[in-house]
Amino acid sequence: MAFDILEPGLATSVQDRGRFGYYNVGIPQGGAMDQLSASMANALVGNSAGDAVLECAYLGPRFTTDTDAVIAVAGAPVQVKVNGQTADQWTRLSLAAGDEVSFGMLSGGTRYYVAVQGGIDVPEVLGSRSTYTLGALGGFQGRTLKAGDTVPVGTTSGSSSSGPAWEAVPEDLRPVYAREVTVRILPGLYDHRLTAEGMETLVSTAWKLTPVADRTGLRYAGPDLEWKPRTQPFGAGSDPSNIVDAGYAIGSIQVPGGKEPIVLHRDAVSGGGYAMVATVISADMDVVARSAPGTLTHFEPVTMEQALAARADAARVRRAVWG
């Protein structure tokens, strides 16, 4: 069973929950940027939460199936078509052999996910089927899809179903794709390098997401941040935001030159020489991933206790999906 790719879309890749345990040697977690939407797509077709899906960025693929299949599309709002006829997102869709699936333009957000019953059946690499394009690792031949690719699909028996028996995801559980969002952050590890005015600017500005936004990181436009004067440390660059190299957490916020904060995301490098002035909490990484260029973003400082409570709330949503 397979999907035949007629048109690949802009940057369609195979993703699952990610590749864990190798960040210390420079291999990032990866996985679906919007983990909840990918999980919901899997739930609709009866897959396990960790089965591989297609992540479609902005412009989706056009493909046919060589046998009967059950799919679901979840994530950013987009027109779904089966044989040219409009079909629904957030629902289970049955395909017959030879059916063609295509997509229109997005009306919000950036990425949506195509799950198929049985999962995308590419080989596991270091415990994951996720594509890490910078390292040509995992996924379909370590890259985004191309026209002419034949993407294998697993058998239903190979997928350990644990999803709910839903025909559609209830509307109250579906993510929101807003043009203005609040993203919670934990200040540190190098927030002390900013002046009080610099930190106040970070948390009081409505930052505008620029088009420079991909799986590695997302760049925001706004006013300059003020750094404290310093003597350049041995081993660090001359930029005020440079430090002696350190490890980066997923979600770290860097501000090279004091301009345009960058939120590191799923495919980010694991370390380098820029100060991390704050880190997006894990519960809000999907919110960042759903943001389209132009989205106004407010960074709201929280405590560790609040971050852990938010993580517990996110876990309750996942349990609502999976039971």
Could you explain how this protein is built, in words?
This protein is 14% helix and 31% strand. The chain is an alpha+beta fold. The strands form 4 sheets. A 7-stranded mixed β-barrel has the order 12-19-16-17-14-13-20. It has a 6-stranded antiparallel sheet with strand order 7-6-9-4-1-11, with no helix packed on it. The longest helix has 19 residues, at 304-322. The mean pLDDT is 94.
Structural class computed from helices and strand pairing: alpha+beta
Overall residue-averaged pLDDT value: 94
Shape: elongated
Strand fraction band? 25-35%
**First CA to last CA: what distance?**
29 Å
The arrangement of helices and strands along the chain is EEHEEEEEEEEEEHEEEEEEEHEH
List the helices and strands and how they pair.
Layout: E1 2-7, E2 13-15, H1 35-45, E3 53-57, E4 62-65, E5 69-75, E6 78-82, E7 85-87, E8 92-95, E9 100-106, E10 111-116, E11 150-152, E12 180-187, H2 196-204, E13 207-213, E14 217-221, E15 242-247, E16 252-254, E17 262-264, E18 271-274, E19 276-280, H3 285-290, E20 296-301, H4 304-322
Parallel strand pairs: 12-20
Antiparallel strand pairs: 1-4, 1-11, 2-3, 3-10, 4-9, 5-8, 5-10, 6-7, 6-9, 12-19, 13-14, 13-20, 14-17, 15-18, 16-17, 16-19
Summarize this structure as a short list of keywords or feature phrases.
elongated, 20 strands, 323 residues, single chain, 4 helices, alpha+beta
Write a compact overview of the structure shown.
With 323 residues, this protein is an alpha+beta fold. It has helices at 35-45, 196-204, 285-290, 304-322; strands spanning 2-7, 13-15, 53-57, 62-65, 69-75, 78-82, 85-87, 92-95, 100-106, 111-116, 150-152, 180-187, 207-213, 217-221, 242-247, 252-254, 262-264, 271-274, 276-280, 296-301. The chain is built from four helices and 20 strands.
